[in-house]
Amino acid sequence: MTFDTIIRGGTVATASDTFSCDIGIKDGRIAALGDRLGEAGEIVDAGGRLVLPGGIDSHVHIAQPSGPGIVMADDFASATRSAAFGGNTMVLPFAMQQKGESLRQVVTDYHRKADGHCYIDVSFHLIIADASEAVLGQELPALVHDGYTSFKVFMTYEGLALSDIEMLNVMSVARETGALVMVHAENYDAIRFLTDRLERAGKTAPHFHGTSRPIPVEREATHRAISLAELVDVPVMIVHVSNGAAMEEIRRAQQRGLKVYGETCPQYLVLTEKDMEGLNMEGAKYVCSPPPRDEASQAACWQGLQQKVFSLFSSDHCPFRYDDPQGKLHPKGRTSFRWVPNGIPGVETRLPILFSEGVKKGRISLNDFVALTSTNHARTYGLYPKKGTIAVGADADLAFWDPERKVTITQSLMHGGADYTPYEGIEVTGWPVSTMVRGRFVVRDGKLVGTETAGQYVSRAKSEFAKPRGRHDFMP
Ligand code: DUC
Ligand code: ZN
Ligand code: ZN
C-alpha cells in the first residue's frame, strides 16, 4: 500500500502499551503500524518525539451564554485553535439550554456557532435546564437517538439548578435511552445561604467565593447525586471533583458496585484557594466552581487519579477575559464575588500540566496519562475506537510531544481568547509540539498550519457505560 503519510521513528504510547513503530496513514485513518511500511506521499520524522493519541477534552465551555453583559472569551475558532496548540484533537463543549428554550433549537444554534469554525473535531453534550415534560418526553430522547448521548445537570446556579425530583426525571430518561448523565454537584441552597451572610458582613472580595462554597457543599451534593442515581439505577459522571471528601463519596459508591464515575481538572491539582487572594480583583482570575481548595485536596485529587477513582482529567475550560467590561474585573459594574463569572481558561494547558506534574514527576505512568486525557474520554462518551487510541482503523488523531522541552507557562504563549492564564509562571517539562487531526497537521512544530474549516462535528454512539434499559418500575 502507498500511504498518504508515514510517521517514522517516534515512540508511540496508548492507554496500555508503549512501543517504537511507524504509523501509516491513509484517508485520514491509521492504516498500518509497523516497521518499513514502504512508500508515502510524505514521511514525517518523529525521532525523539512521543506520538500519543490526540487529547480529547470532554469538558469545555465555548460561546455559552453567561448572563447579561458577560461574554465568554472564546468562540469556536479561538477555543479549538487553543486546544490544538495544547495537543488536543477533539473537544466536547456543551449546548446549553436556558429555561423555556427548545433543546432542539439550542442544538441547532450551537451548530450554527460551531460548524465551519473549528480547527479540531467537536461533539456536543447537552445541558438540561428545563426538565419539563415536553423536553424530557420528546426532545431529549430524540436528541440522544441523534447522537447527543450525554447531558449535564446542575445542582446549583439560578436558572440552572434542578430539584431532586427533576434530577430523578432526567436520570430516568437517561436510563431508558442509554445516555450518560454528568452532574455538577454543589448544594444551591447552602451556597445562597453562605453568600448572603458573607455579603451582609461586607465580605465580598474574590476569595470569599471559596468561603461561599466550602467542601461540605460539594460533598453533600455528590452524595445526593449518587443516591439519586442509585435509586434510578443509572450510571452517573460526577464532574470537576475538587477535594478528598467528594472523591471518597465516589470511591465508596464504586466499591459498592455502582456505576459512578469521576472527573477532576488541573485547577484542583495546581491551584489553591490562596490564589483567589490576589490584590484588588486579581483573585477573580481564579474564580471557578467548585473553587480551588487546599494542599490536602490537591493530594486527594492526585490519589483519585492514581487509584482510578477518577477516570477523566478534563480542563473545564470556561474562559472569561479579566480586564474587560464583559469579563471578571468589574462584573456588571459590581465588585462582589457573587457576580464574578465562574470559570477559567485551561484547554491549552491541561495536557502539559498533567504530563509534567504527573508523568515527569513519577505520579502516573505515560499510559495512564493517555487513558486519563484521551482514551477514557472516548470510551465514556461513545467515541471509541474511532477516537482515543492509536490502532489500525482509528482516526489519525495524533499529538507529537517533545518530552524534554521546558516551558514556563505564560499568557503570551497561549492561543485562545482570554487575556490571562491562571497557570502563569508554572514551569513544565514536556510540551506538545505538533497536532494532527485525521491525518492532517493543525499545528506543526509550534506553528498553526490548519484552518478553521478542518474540524468536523462527530455524532456519538452511546457510552460504553450506559446501555439503554427499560423503565424502572421501583417495585420490589
Ligand atoms: N461549572 C462548570 O462545569 N464549568 C464552569 C463553571 C461551572 O460552574
Ligand atoms: Zn459545572
Ligand atoms: Zn464546566
Helix and strand topology:
Elements (H helix, E strand, L loop, with lengths): L2 E6 L2 E3 L4 E3 L1 E5 L2 E6 L5 E6 L4 E4 L1 E6 L15 H10 L2 E9 L6 H12 L6 E2 L2 E3 L5 H13 L4 E5 L9 H14 L2 E5 L3 H13 L7 H5 L2 H18 L3 E3 L5 H12 L4 E5 L2 H4 L24 H12 L3 E4 L36 H11 L5 H15 L17 E11 L18 E11 L2 E5 L2 E2 L28
Parallel strand pairs: 1-6, 2-7, 8-9, 9-10, 9-11, 11-12, 12-13, 13-14, 14-15, 15-16
Antiparallel strand pairs: 1-4, 2-3, 4-5, 7-17, 17-18, 18-19, 19-20
Helix pairs in contact: 3-4, 4-7, 7-8, 8-10
Bound molecules: dihydropyrimidine-2,4(1H,3H)-dione and zinc ion (2 copies).
Structure description:
The protein is of the alpha/beta class. It is 29% helix and 22% strand. It has helices at residues 76-85, 103-114, 133-145, 164-177, 188-200, 208-212, 215-232, 244-255, 267-270, 295-306, 350-360, 366-380, and strands at 3-8, 11-13, 18-20, 22-26, 29-34, 40-45, 50-53, 55-60, 88-96, 121-122, 125-127, 150-154, 180-184, 236-238, 260-264, 310-313, 398-408, 427-437, 440-444, 447-448. Strands 8, 9, 10, 11, 12, 13, 14, 15 and 16 form a nine-stranded parallel beta sheet that branches. The mean pLDDT is 97. Residues 59, 61, 316, 318 line the site of one zinc ion (ZN).
Tags for this model:
single chain, 476 residues, alpha/beta, nine-stranded parallel sheet, seven-stranded mixed sheet, 12 helices, 20 strands, binds dihydropyrimidine-2,4(1H,3H)-dione, binds zinc ion
